[in-house]
From TrEMBL:
Family annotation (CDD domains): TOP1Ac, TOPRIM_TopoIA_TopoIII
The protein's name: DNA topoisomerase 3
Reactions performed catalytically: ATP-independent breakage of single-stranded DNA, followed by passage and rejoining
Function text: Releases the supercoiling and torsional tension of DNA, which is introduced during the DNA replication and transcription, by transiently cleaving and rejoining one strand of the DNA duplex. Introduces a single-strand break via transesterification at a target site in duplex DNA. The scissile phosphodiester is attacked by the catalytic tyrosine of the enzyme, resulting in the formation of a DNA-(5'-phosphotyrosyl)-enzyme intermediate and the expulsion of a 3'-OH DNA strand. The free DNA strand then undergoes passage around the unbroken strand, thus removing DNA supercoils.
Cofactor dependency: Mg(2+)
InterPro entries given in the database record: Topo_IA (IPR000380), Topo_IA_2 (IPR003601), Topo_IA_AS (IPR023406), Topo_IA_cen (IPR013497), Topo_IA_cen_sub1 (IPR013824), Topo_IA_cen_sub2 (IPR013825), Topo_IA_cen_sub3 (IPR013826), Topo_IA_core_domain (IPR023405)
Site, as annotated: Interaction with DNA: 61, 168, 176, 312
Residues annotated for Mg(2+) binding in this entry: 9, 105
Matching Pfam families: Topoisom_bac, Toprim
């Protein structure tokens, strides 16, 4: 009897599948049972070949040799994972293996991982597909009972292949062109460039902004306050000082009469379930986690603990068949503070309303929700518990009653001028009860809401003070990771576009995908195009100059959105891959020509007086995510040296976070905010308790790193090629 080979994407997932499929015999790189053999990739085992594979001349970077357009892009085995590829290939070629089940991640990139391995290994055996949204035993068993024909996902593979080849053709050509033209380590790409352009443009708006003074008038009674509003426009802002002074003079000492009181019953329903981007936004807003950190935590909760469903989803709804499993999921989370809410939901018939159950709003995967797996909360780290808590509370909230309150609006007249007040009285907390403890959804924040006394039309209100408040208009806020994710998801709200282009962007889901946005943001930091000031993301001089150097089309969010639309059409069989590939090649030629013709210059403005110990050139000072460093300006050299690292230790004088500078006995703590400086060993003796806390945190982080069973996936030929470059 022939056996079935199961190909997983990572070792940890492979071991879970093997356990469920009773593959107990351990071997190097695979596990075997009576019916199944389970093996795994390490992320990508196969990728697109580097340029030098096609021609010797591409070993050196020369502008004259561009564009690079091989007739057919070749696949190569990634060197560092070659051993595992040979193991996988050997298992696929076994005579007793009659069928292969693709069990890589259920998405576009996961499909590419498996298909490239199969293609490179030249396997022609029958293929089936495991397509599941959680890693629980029940989900795996059901998945194997309902395996799909691999042909159902052929178009998804073609779309993934087109994406990878387009990134190679466009990304490598524009990166080499910019780097050679300006003798600096510069990279560009369809999503990266559009995202960076939004950050740079926002900074320009802030720098160009000229604040204007405006005034607001408030009338205070003993129990509440009213605000002046313009009778025609309904606005409270007055930009003319003389007009504001005139109104204050006119109403001072005059009678305030209530002219209208309106009470409205209001209902507010829970926000929709989480997709990855919304979860990353809330995790950044509430806990200051980066998008990359949130995805990493989610991946552990999905793969290792199996308590949350597939993270890389862009849907905020579940299907009717998943709805049938809700009682089991509620039982699994019926512990701790969640129990009373889960019990309340289960005590009645659960309503599958359109706020969270909608088959038409689900793509490859449904929203992120808890699985049927019961969890020991004590096993979760603080970070894991925070993310789990967000998902569980949102899951509970969508099934609880709406938040209900009475909104009272009061209108009053003072000497012919209109004043208003708004107040809310809670009738039923509904789903907001879930958020009474811990982070999550803030309390209802209707603007200018206050507790109003009982008043009726015709009442006279005693005004004890009239205030004229001088304010200033504010520039648009800088992006943080949460708002940048919003801008990537809905760029039409952040860039000037015609209505047709804005509509296209809205329909395509913005720039990048839920799976790639975190990596794009991380790359902007790693390439020193942006840096953090507190939570704000600020473009560096390098980032600003790069946006000026990149050809116009590449930094438009519209272009990358159109790419994603075409890739989506390929995945659904509505566009031919060849047409897309030809477009990308023509586009790459045009981009390279634009760079060659450019008269622009690139200038380092962060050159220091310190020389590189390797090549003698002056070094650059840059700010990374973890600290300050020197890096050599020669891209061929690539020497780097740490200056300081950011810590969580607080300054004893101003309480800002300290930097740790120097090496060995020369280490000192320095406050970037005030003049505090002290040798690290003396500081640690004085503040031993604080230092111990820091050490425990550092040790915890290190233990988590080594605990990870999965090697980091290598996601594309472009990423592989860029990783070999010496960063500047």
């Amino acid at each position: 009897m022939s056996k079935i080979l199961v190909l997983a994407e990572k070792p940890s997932v492979g071991r879970d599948l093997a356990r469920v499929l009773r593959c107990n015999r351990k071997n190097s790189g695979y596990l075997e049972g009576d019916r199944y053999v389970v093996t795994w990739a390490l992320g990508h085992l196969v990728t697109l070949a580097d340029p030098e594979v096609y021609s010797e001349k591409y070993k050196n970077w020369n502008l004259e040799d561009l564009p690079m357009l091989p007739e057919k892009l070749k696949l190569v085995v990634i060197k560092q994972s070659g051993k595992q590829f040979n193991i996988v290939k050997a298992q696929m070629n076994r005579k007793d293996i009659g069928e292969i089940v693709i069990a890589t991640d259920s998405g576009r990139e996961g499909e590419l991982v498996a298909r490239w391995i199969i293609e490179k290994a030249r396997i022609k055996k029958p293929l089936k597909r495991l397509w599941i949204s959680s890693q629980t035993d029940k989900s795996i068993i059901n998945g194997f009972k309902n395996l799909k024909p691999s042909s159902k996902y052929d178009n998804l593979y073609r779309a993934a292949q087109c994406r990878a080849e387009a990134d190679w053709v466009v990304g490598l050509n524009i990166t080499r062109a910019l780097t050679c033209k300006y003798n600096a380590q510069l990279t560009a790409g369809r999503v990266q460039s559009a995202t960076l352009a939004m950050i740079v443009n926002r900074e320009k708006e802030i720098n160009d902004f000229k604040p204007k003074d405006y005034y607001e008038i408030t009338a205070k009674s003993d129990k509440f306050k009213l605000k002046w509003v313009d009778r025609k426009s309904g606005r409270a802002n007055i930009f003319n000082k003389d007009k504001a002074d005139g109104i204050v003079k006119k109403i001072n000492g005059k009678i305030c009469t209530v002219v209208d009181v309106v009470e409205n019953d209001k209902r507010k329903f829970s926000p929709a379930l989480y997709d990855l981007t919304e979860l990353q936004r809330d995790a950044n807003r509430i806990f200051n986690y980066s998008a990359k950190e949130t995805l990493s935590i989610m991946q552990r909760l999905y793969e290792n603990y199996k308590i949350l469903t597939y993270p890389r989803t862009d849907s905020r709804y579940i299907s009717t068949d998943v709805f049938e499993t809700i009682p089991e999921r509620l039982k699994a989370i019926s512990l701790g503070s969640y129990k009373k809410f889960a019990d309340r939901i289960m005590s009645k018939k659960i309503n599958a309303h359109k706020g969270f159950v909608d088959n038409g709003k689900i793509g490859d995967h449904h929203a992120i929700i808890p699985t049927e797996e019961r969890v020991q909360l004590s096993r979760l780290s603080t970070e894991e518990m925070n993310i789990y808590d967000l998902v569980v509370k949102r899951f509970l909230a969508v099934m609880l009653p709406p938040y209900e309150y009475v909104q009272t609006s009061v209108k009053a007249d003072i000497a012919g001028e209109l004043f208003t007040a708004v107040g809310n009285v809670v009738k039923s907390k509904g789903w907001k009860m879930v958020y009474e403890r811990g982070a999550g959804m803030e309390a209802e924040g209707e603007k200018d809401s206050q507790l109003l006394p009982k008043v009726k039309k015709g009442d006279i209100v005693n005004i004890r003070a009239v205030e004229l408040n001088k304010l200033q208009t504010k520039p648009p806020a800088r992006f943080n990771e949460a708002t940048l994710l919003s801008a990537m998801e809905n760029p039409q709200k952040y860039v000037k576009l015609d209505s047709e282009s804005a509509k296209t962007l809205g329909e395509t889901g913005g720039i990048g995908t839920v799976a790639t946005r975190a990596d794009i943001i991380e790359k902007l930091f790693n390439m020193f195009y942006v840096e953090k000031r507190g939570r704000e993301i600020v473009p560096t001089s390098k980032g600003k100059q790069l946006v000026d150097l990149v050809p116009e089309g590449l930094k438009s969010p519209l272009m990358t959105a159109k790419w994603e639309k075409e890739l989506e059409d390929i995945s659904t069989g509505n566009e031919k891959p060849d047409i897309f590939s030809k477009k990308m090649r023509k586009y790459a030629v045009r981009l390279v020509e634009d760079v060659k013709k450019s008269k622009d210059k690139f200038v380092y403005d962060n050159v220091t007086g310190k020389k590189c110990p390797h090549c003698g050139k002056y070094m650059l000072q840059v700010k990374g995510k973890s600290g300050m460093m020197y890096i050599c300006q020669d891209r061929e050299c690539g020497y780097r040296e740490n200056i300081s690292r950011f810590t969580n230790v607080r300054c004893p004088e101003c309480h800002k976070k300290l930097e740790l500078r120097g090496e060995g006995q020369g280490k000192i703590y320095v406050c970037p905010n005030c003049s505090f400086r002290e040798k690290a060993d003396l500081f640690n003796k004085r503040f031993k308790e604080s230092e111990n806390k820091l050490n425990r945190k550092d040790v915890s982080k290190y233990m988590k790193k080594i605990k990870k069973e999965n090697e980091k996936p290598i996601n594309s030929s472009l990423a592989e090629a860029l990783s070999k470059l010496k960063l500047k």
